[in-house]
Amino acid sequence: MLFELHKSFGETLIILTLVMTVYAAIRAGSNRVVPMGMLVGLSGLLDLQVLLGIVLALTITLPWSRIFIHPLLMATAAVLVHAAVRKPDASATLLWAAMTALVLGYMGITWALH
Q1: Which of 110, 9, 2 is closest to 59 using CA atoms?
Q2: Segments of the chain with pLDDT less than 50
């Protein structure tokens, strides 16, 4: 049950991050600021996902490498988004953070599933 929740929530976050990436790209092209509520919401959801992952890691038995590498990559993605939120006036920074978070997320998920 917890695994399915973590997985579904993660898929939702990927979609939201993709939307944020497109939105930030549009805003960066016009030098407009991304709304702060959007940024705080996404970073809060990422924090919740990391917390779910920690609880899941403590309750299941997997090889150490899977339990260590996946959370490390995902926490790094969350830190990048938090760093971008600190500069909401820099849409280009948010765009790069969102794209990097997607790449790290893909790597982390791929690592966890194989």
Answers
A1: 2
A2: none
Run of H or E including 98:
helix 91-113
Q: 3-state class of 86 per DSSP?
A: coil
Find how far residue 57's CA is from the centre of its chain: 17
Q: Amino acid letter at 80?
A: L
Phi/psi at 68 (nearest 5 deg)? -90, -50
Instruction: Name the token pair of 53.
Output: 């992952």
pLDDT digits (tens, 9 = 90+) for 90-105: 666 666 777 777 777 7
Q: Which two tokens stand for residue 78?
A: 């969350």
Q: Can you give the residue ranges of every domain in the chain?
A: 2-113
Please check whether residue 70 is in contact with residue 91, taking contact to mean a CB–CB distance below 8 angstroms.
no
Q: Report the Cα–Cα distance between both ends of the chain, in Å, rounded.
A: 20
Q: CB–CB of 5/52 below 8 Å? A: yes
